[in-house]
Amino acid sequence: MDLGLKGRRALVLGASAGLGFAIASELVREGARVAICSRSEERIRAAAANMGAALGVAADLSVPGATRTVVEQVREALGGVDILVVNTGGPPKGSILEISDAQWQENFQSLWMGAVEGIRAAAPAMKERRWGRIILVTSASAREPMPGLTISSGLRAGLMGLTKIVSSELAEHGVTLNAVLPSFFATERLKELGIDEDRITSQIPARRLGRPAELGALVAFLASEQAAFITGQSIAADGGWMRGF
């Protein structure tokens, strides 16, 4: 299927590794001109060269205003941003009594305000062109909270509400906004959290971890011409792990 992405200009945040890298790589394969962003200049340059991205930008998205600046840099370099994928690294584990105020503030900026800044920076030009795709990469913890992932479960749940309300503001202008909710994927994040692969796969009806390329394919479809009538949705990619509706 031709997704109609050839020549489209895309920015994928948090894309030097893991799910962000897989998403950006899929957009490159579909013919989009892709810019990627991550904190480490060395890693983002290597990732851009590896996947064939048009541009790699180093930025710390936990700094206020950084996401907006990245969107502006990419818009200037590529001539615009048609597709924005907001992806951030997972926050640390911890219960409400273990997490410091500084950790809450840093992750509120990167997870929540980063999404707000990105949308506000990219949406006006999308509205003018009457075409745009915004995809937020959140987590299954947004819908089904995970023990120990208090920051992720709390902040990312709010992104589902943001997705719903902002999508309704943009829809008549040809701009869609959706969220994807990955659960357990074969990335370094699983090791960082100390999750036992055998134990967790026994709880997933598909009996395996997700493959990053599978999330990449989902995001590429949501960015496509064919997905123009899909907006305001929070779509799980979880192998059936979540039990709720």
Topology overview:
Layout: E1 9-13, H1 18-29, E2 33-38, H2 41-51, E3 55-58, H3 66-78, E4 83-86, H4 101-129, E5 132-137, H5 150-170, E6 175-182, H6 188-192, H7 197-201, H8 212-222, E7 234-237
Parallel strand pairs: 1-2, 1-4, 2-3, 4-5, 5-6, 6-7
Give the tags.
alpha/beta; single chain; 8 helices; Rossmann fold
Biggest beta sheet attributes: 7 strands, parallel
Number of strands: 7
Number of domains: 1
| Distance linking N and C termini | 30 Å
Q: How many helical stretches?
A: 8
Taking all residues together, what is the mean pLDDT?
Answer: 93
Please give the CATH architecture: 3-Layer(aba) Sandwich
Form type: globular
Radius of gyration: 17 Å
Helix content: 40-55%
- The SSE string, one letter per element, is EHEHEHEHEHEHHHE
Helix-strand category? alpha/beta
Q: What is the name of the CATH topology?
A: Rossmann fold
Give the neighbour order of strands across the main sheet.
3-2-1-4-5-6-7
Percentage of residues in DSSP E strands: 15-25%
**CATH homologous superfamily identity:** NAD(P)-binding Rossmann-like Domain
CATH class: Alpha Beta
